[in-house]
Structure formats: C-alpha cells, structure tokens
Amino acid sequence: MWFKNLQLYRFTRPFEYSAETLEAALQSRPGRLCGPHEEMSHGWSSPMGRKGEMLVHAANGFLMICATKEEKIIPASVVREHVNERVEKIEETQARKVRKKERDNLRDDVMNELLPRALSRTLRTFAYIDPKEGLLVVDSASVAKAEEFTALLRKTLGSLPVVPPTTNETPYAVLTGWLTKNNYPPEFGVEDECELRSADIEGSVVRCKRLDLASPEVKLHLKEGKLVSKLALNWRDRLTFVLDENFAIKRVRFLEIVQEQVDDVEVEDAAARFDVDFSIMTLELSLFIKQLFEAFGGENVDALEDAA
What's the pTM value of the predicted model, to 2 decimals? Predict the structure, then answer.
C-alpha cells in the first residue's frame, strides 16, 4: 500500500465529494473480468483488495481509491503472424493484392478469434485525494498510466478539474543550483545519484550513481553548463526519493524512523493495519509535498488560474 511514486495533480476547483458520495459514484463503474471478446476492462476496486468491500478508504480527511484494469495478453507478433498467413492465402488463391482496409478487417477477425482464448493480467493503480489541500496523488512512475487513471475518474464522476502543478522556480534551475552551490533547504539532503543533461536538445547525458555528488567530476560537468534533470534526495531523514525535471517524484522509500512509528501501533487485524499505514503515509506525504513546493518557490498561482 505504501506509495512508491507520486504523480501530483492540483484541483482547480474544490473537490466536493465526501467519502459516501464518492463511494456511490465509483460503484457505478466497478472493476470486472473482461468479456470473451473484450481486450480490456477498467473500473474501481477496494484499495484493500479481497479483504475490503468499500471502494473508498477514508482516514483523517484523505480518500484512497484504486483503479483496476484487466487486459488480455495477445502478443502483437502473434496477431501479425496470423494476419500475414491469411493475406498470403488470399493473394495466392485469388491472385490479387490485399489492401490496407481489408488487412485491417483481417486483423479484427484474428483478434475476435484469439481474445476468448487469451490469458489476462490485472493491473491496479492506487491514488489518494486530499480535499483540504486540493491534491490528487497517483502512485505511478508513468505519466501515461497516471493520465489513464485520471481519465477513468473523470469518466466516472462526469468531470475532474485537475492539472499538474507548476512551481515558480523550475526543477532544472533549483536542482542545478543545489548541486552547484551545495546549498539547499534544511529539510532536504542530497543523496548519491543524479542525471545531468546538456542544455541543447540533442546534448549529452551523464548518469551518476553511488557517487559523492560534491566530487570534482560532478562539479566539472556543472561548470561546463550541464543541468540537473534528476536528483536523489532525502527529506528530514524520513523518506528518500528521486525528483526529475517534470516534478515527478519517483522511487519513494520511507525510512526507519517512519517504519518504527508504524510498528509502535498495535493492531488486531489486517484492516486495522491498512488503516494505520494509510494514515501515517498520508500525513507524512502531506507535509513532505508542502515543503517540496516551498523549496521550489511555491506553486505558480497564475498558471493554476489560467487552467481553471
């Protein structure tokens, strides 16, 4: 349940759903198995998996939800092979060329035949909503998957006024400044990993891992004009993460001090453990996100108003 990646979205209008009304809305599109001829189904399931029934888990004002996607696994190479066999047979027996439209129809026929026999896989994407702060936080390393999540939520609710937040100071400028001057806010510390890019579009990329980022080698790259596009950071010795030039937060790892806090709470069952974990995680992330925005000069309010 502990989030490993954070894609942030800012609500441009207040999120007015309660846990109860959000639950009712999600119930209109429950997760389900694919039909025999469906390539994919997408809906909502309990964040607690089979141990839970409710589609919304609420704690301390935070609302956790989970999108479930089941998709059939049919390798493109297999489809292509079947289509090519049919194309060759038609061209040999009928002495004519198969055009694109007919090839597309043959592909549809192949898919209809293969889908009922195909294996499927289930993918779950978690997120939580912080109505008080106006944030949607999606646990995904991929922007495309996060957008897929928001698209499903928008379709379910009818509208979803969210945009990725922008900061007054760009990640490139702030991260490069931190490494160049070896000076950053007291809440944050630099770890041992970064990615440096030349300013021009087709410039070189240098990736450093398990390296002292205050070393002469890194300083030389910065002096030559390279910009920091990714940087591994530590927040208050409570979690580590990697921040990139798009303000995406990846590879989040909660450290021992947080885990000890979790272990200190005695619980009776899995449901209570889930509730404790979710409560502690969201309270930690709430302060972390707030201080991260502050470190980058705060959010760009003008951009938010334009989006609204």
Answer: 0.88
